[in-house]
Amino acid sequence: MRAEERAADSRAGLRVLRFGRVSPLRSQSLWHAIADGVSAGAPPTLSFMRPESPYVSVGYHQDLGLVDLEACGRAAVPVYRRMVGGGAVYLDEHQLFFQVTVPAAAVPAARSDALTRLLTPAVAAFAAAGLPAHLDSSGEIVVGDRKVCGHGAGQIGRAVVVVGNLIERFDHAAAAALIRTPGDDTAAETLRLMRRYVGPEEGSSVDPVAFEAAAVRSYSHALGREPFEGELTVLEHGALERWDRRLESPEWLAGPSLRPPSSWQLKVRSGVFVTAAAASGEV
């Protein structure tokens, strides 16, 4: 096949990027850089990576006050603000991340419709990994009523990104310890609900290799594109360095100016919240 034919096939295909274990910073900056690449004409991309150590990620509009920064510092757990939405989440090496990045023009304009289209292919991959999941009415990937995938979505430039994770097992105590709660009762209820609703049932066998292979097949079929093993473009390598600097910036972490909330609230999963009066800590 001639070089120009290979290039045409690449533009028509689904680029697959496998990064393996990466630093917490790179597990965020890589997919931000890919969004810049897809915005500039790189093909739709399915990427995989796993953070080599724990960290906390907060959504673009998330109040940073929900995170106990002192506890994070003591535990040497970095905190990063991402460009897509959602709340504060605890991430570690027991979670395989996947991201699907496509041109914004390729998905429905309605956010809920776009999210459904780009999350539905992942459901088959969860089943292949040993988790009989489904997409519930709230747009959450669940087994029964337990969330087995945290996800976020947003538009970066001219690309739409949906990020998700295969939760192999979840350290509820470590996650709860890094949340700033208004009282001991709230902290205890947060941990109880996390144990009840987040991650697969204890003892579940999860196969990340099968998940990755099935995700490639499923997204290739859903997008109508042949998968090919790719690499970052020159533009994306440059964008990666810029995103590294931005995500480590204290100004970026501080986030947009927000009105102080009248009450404390933590989302555990869709439809499940811990709420307390900020002053009293009463649940």
Task: Please sum up the structure shown.
This protein has 283 residues and is of the alpha+beta class.
Topology:
Layout: H1 3-12, E1 14-22, H2 24-39, E2 45-51, E3 55-58, H3 69-74, E4 79-81, E5 89-91, E6 95-103, H4 111-128, E7 134-135, E8 141-143, E9 146-147, E10 151-156, E11 159-167, H5 172-177, H6 184-197, H7 208-223, E12 227-229, H8 234-247, H9 250-254, E13 263-269, E14 272-277
Parallel strand pairs: 1-2, 1-12, 3-4
Antiparallel strand pairs: 2-6, 3-5, 6-11, 7-8, 8-9, 10-11, 13-14
Helix pairs in contact: 2-8, 4-7
Describe the structure.
The structure is a single chain. The protein is built from nine helices and 14 strands. It has helices at 3-12, 24-39, 69-74, 111-128, 172-177, 184-197, 208-223, 234-247, 250-254; strands at residues 14-22, 45-51, 55-58, 79-81, 89-91, 95-103, 134-135, 141-143, 146-147, 151-156, 159-167, 227-229, 263-269, 272-277. The strands form four sheets. It has a six-stranded mixed beta sheet, with helices on both faces. Strands 4-3-5 form a three-stranded mixed beta sheet. Strands 7-8-9 form a three-stranded antiparallel beta sheet, covered by helices on one side. The N and C termini lie far apart (65 Å). The model is unreliable at 1-10 (pLDDT under 50).
